[in-house]
Design brief:
Helix content is about 40%, strand content about 30%. Helix 2 crosses helix 3. Strand 5 and strand 6 form a beta hairpin. It is an alpha+beta fold.
């Protein structure tokens, strides 16, 4: 049987672990800047084909994309506890994915820190876009 002091100590230790379970401290934002695009047969195609791959990759990963004009897609990822917004810019040879806005992701604009999952989401989105690019027929 636990003593009241032991029970209190166990409770305090449990409470101290909650921030770690919730994701820990924010980390530096890592954006994807001018990453090379990989085309099927290594032959660059049209900007519209890149836009289609970006839109499809966004949808695959749960982002809601909106075309903003040639070479630019804005995408939003919404969950009950957070919202993330990004800008995806591209040419026929490069891709950039940059932070636009967020809620609930511990964004610190002065230190450029954000919840650690955000960087992972950008990497997973880049991978999904690359898969779509390889599927693109030129």
């Amino acid at each position: 049987m636990r003593t009241p002091v032991a029970a209190l100590a166990a409770l305090l230790l449990s409470l101290a672990a909650l921030p770690a379970l919730a994701g820990g401290r924010p980390i530096p934002l890592v954006e994807i800047i001018d990453a090379p695009l990989v085309w099927q047969n290594n032959a660059p195609g049209k900007l519209e084909e890149v836009q289609s791959a970006v839109m499809a990759g966004c949808v695959t990963k749960g982002w809601v994309p909106t075309a903003q004009g040639p070479g630019h897609v804005h995408a939003v990822l919404t969950r009950p506890d957070y919202r993330a917004e990004i800008d995806v810019t591209f040419t026929t040879t490069t891709l950039s994915i940059k932070y636009a806005d967020s809620q609930g992701l511990d964004w610190n604009p002065d230190k450029r820190l954000i919840h650690r999952n955000f960087n992972r989401w950008l990497t997973l989105l880049q991978q999904a876009i690359n898969v779509e690019m390889v599927r693109t027929k030129t």
